[in-house]
Specification:
The protein is α/β, with parallel strands linked by helices and 320 residues long. The protein has helices at 18-34, 48-51, 57-60, 68-75, 137-146, 159-167, 178-183, 217-223, 229-244, 290-303, 306-319; strands at 10-15, 40-45, 81-85, 97-102, 110-114, 131-133, 151-153, 173-177, 192-193, 208-213, 253-260, 263-271, 278-285. It starts with 9 loop residues before the first strand and ends with a helix. The structure holds ligand DPM.
Length: 320
């Protein structure tokens, strides 16, 4: 336990969605356990990303639409830290803010959730033309690559809305993050955990990132208590890979990481939207060289043609 002489209330900014609130209150509880004498207060707000529900996510791009309002609060000092799903946090943060801490990751995999009429089916056995809902270009491209006979349809809204649309018959199956369903207490809806051979997860998926002011030593020290070093090293490598490819959170880029015997292995892929081209490779090295490993893997994939695949996608998104 760390005892601090300061007594000011620490203000945590959060989005208002059910998942965001579950995550923020989890962080608050962890901090409260470590610092029983400090006061923590949660302040919620909607972000632009929560309000724009009719535009394809790919058009919104990587402008931090789910994070900006929270960041403004920290910069004008009406909040001290913000809790994000790390995968929604852009790899380049606004001047004056830093990723202060990464908490322990849940299962980062994607999950298939099916309509009740397909309870006995998996990805390998769903029929030709089955309607699969996702608005993630990463999921779309990889599933198209492996299952070109499905019909893919855009789906928006929060997790509950998506599950309702599935249950009402608009889709035969939808793809969601395992971690989100678990945190919402809906693990029973996970029908199949999709293996990394089929779908590499998004950068940062399953982990929470805590953003705070650069140089705010009090907050930076405080949140160290809930940092998970292994998750931090893995996600630093993933984020450095994505940053180097200049991919926002909405491009078909997927990753997988593991640390074994003090060796970090980072696998990454870039795919075309039609799922016809897919380049993939892995690099390994020391966890302390995480960011360099991300850059190395990005270089390798560029040699395999990732630059051309991405340039074409940016042009397509621009046109759509
Ligand atoms: C981002 C993506 C999605 C979210 C893109 C991706 C999924 C969008 C979709 C960057 N943010 O994954 O390729 O499927 O239409 C989001 C979820 C979580 C954080 C929900 C989900 C919860 C899991 C976590 C939305 N952001 O992916 O099912 O903490 O990783």
């Amino acid at each position: 336990m760390t005892v601090s002489s300061s007594t000011r209330t620490i203000r945590i900014a959060s989005r208002k969605s059910q998942l965001a609130l579950v995550q923020t209150h989890w962080v608050r509880e962890q901090l409260q356990k470590h610092y029983p004498n400090r006061q923590f207060e949660v302040d919620t707000m909607s972000t632009q990303g929560d309000k724009i529900l009719d535009v394809a996510l790919s058009k919104i791009g990587d402008k931090g639409l789910f994070t900006k309002e929270l960041e403004v609060k920290m910069l004008d000092r009406t909040a001290d830290l913000a809790v994000h799903s790390l995968k929604d946090l852009p790899t380049n943060l606004p001047e004056g803010l830093v990723l202060g801490c990464v908490t322990e990751r849940e299962d980062p995999a994607d999950a298939l959730v099916v309509h009740s009429k397909y309870q006995d089916k998996q990805l390998d056995t769903l029929p030709e033309g089955a309607v699969i809902g996702t608005s993630s270009l990463r999921r779309l491209a990889q599933l198209r690559y492996h299952y070109p006979h499905f019909t893919f349809k855009d789906i928006r809204g929060n997790v509950n809305t998506r599950l309702r649309k599935l249950d009402e018959g608009e889709f035969d199956g939808i793809i969601l993050a395992v971690a989100g369903l678990q945190r919402l207490g809906m693990s029973d809806r996970i029908h199949q955990v999709i293996p990394p051979e089929i779908s590499l997860h998004a950068v940062g998926q399953g982990a929470l990132g805590i953003e705070c002011r650069e140089g705010d030593t009090e907050i930076l020290e405080l949140i160290k208590a809930i940092e998970h070093p292994e998750t931090r090293d893995r996600t630093l490598a993933e984020r450095s890979f994505l940053r180097s490819l200049e991919g926002g959170c909405q491009v078909p880029i997927g990753v997988n990481t593991k640390i074994e015997a003090d060796t970090l292995t980072l696998t990454g892929m870039v795919a075309s939207l039609d799922g016809k081209q897919l380049v993939k490779d892995s690099v390994s090295g020391k966890p302390s060289d995480a960011e360099k490993l991300g850059l190395d893997l990005a270089d390798r994939l560029r040699e395999l043609g990732a630059g051309e695949i991405l340039a074409k996608i940016f042009a397509e998104i621009e046109r759509s």
